Amino acid sequence: MADYVAYNRMMELGCEGVNGGGLIDALPDDVFVKCLVRVPLQWHANLQRVSRAVRELVVSKEYYEQRRVEGASGSFVCMLQPMPMSTEVLAEKCCSFMAACFDPVYGVTLLDVTSREWQRLPAIPGLPRGLPTFCKLVAVKGKLVAMGGWWQSTWEPSRSVFVYDFSSQRWSQGADMLSVRNFFACGAVGSKVVVAGGHDAEKKALRSVEAFDVETGCWEKLESMREERDECTGVVMDGRFYVVSGYGTESQGVFRKSAEVYDAGVNAWSLIENMWPLVARDADVANPSSMAAMAGRLYGVHGKDIIVYSPEKNAWSVVEKVPEDAEKGEMASFSIAATGSSLVITGLARKNDTATLRTLSLIPGCGARKAQWVTVPCNDQFLNMAQTSCSFEM
Question: What would be one Pfam family of this protein (predicted)?
Answer without folding.
Answer: Kelch_KLHDC2_KLHL20_DRC7
